[in-house]
């Protein structure tokens, strides 16, 4: 739930971290101490906090371009080599579309959930602890890393 503090307003992050580190000992306590010393400074908190941040990148396009270049294996393809590469990609895309329409969660769904949870929190519907649990439960760790980047 420590990573979920990134979705709180900056002013509420210290209280949330205090709440989370109640009754902890050992290596987890050391992690919280490190987090406080290194990442909860006035200069660093705005770097990783994503409260009301609209995330939008072209990483998906860059990734696709990198994949196509890697599969091509060379810089200049003949027409038929390019055609074969595009036909193979179309088959992969059809599989992805099938997976997405069968109920897999998309990034946009996760963004909508974060927005809804944040709006509920701003409206006073949830306490800090409830909000952190909801964010930590709904958002898988890889997505949190993507949002922060």
From TrEMBL:
This is MULE transposase domain-containing protein. The lineage of its organism: Eukaryota, Metazoa, Ecdysozoa, Nematoda, Enoplea.
């Amino acid at each position: 739930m420590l990573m979920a503090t990134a979705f709180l307003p900056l002013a509420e992050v210290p209280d949330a971290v205090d709440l989370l580190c109640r009754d902890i000992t050992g290596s987890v306590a050391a992690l919280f101490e490190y987090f406080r010393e290194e990442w909860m400074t006035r200069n660093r908190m705005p770097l990783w906090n994503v409260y009301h941040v609209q995330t939008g990148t072209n990483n998906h396009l860059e990734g696709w371009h990198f994949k196509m270049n890697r599969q091509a294996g060379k810089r200049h393809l003949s027409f038929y080599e390019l055609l074969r590469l595009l036909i193979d990609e179309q088959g992969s895309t059809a599989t992805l579309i099938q997976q997405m329409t069968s109920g897999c969660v998309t990034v946009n769904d996760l963004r909508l959930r974060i927005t809804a949870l944040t709006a509920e929190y701003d409206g006073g519907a949830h306490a800090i602890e409830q909000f952190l649990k909801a964010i930590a439960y709904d958002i898988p760790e890889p997505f949190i890393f993507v949002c922060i980047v």
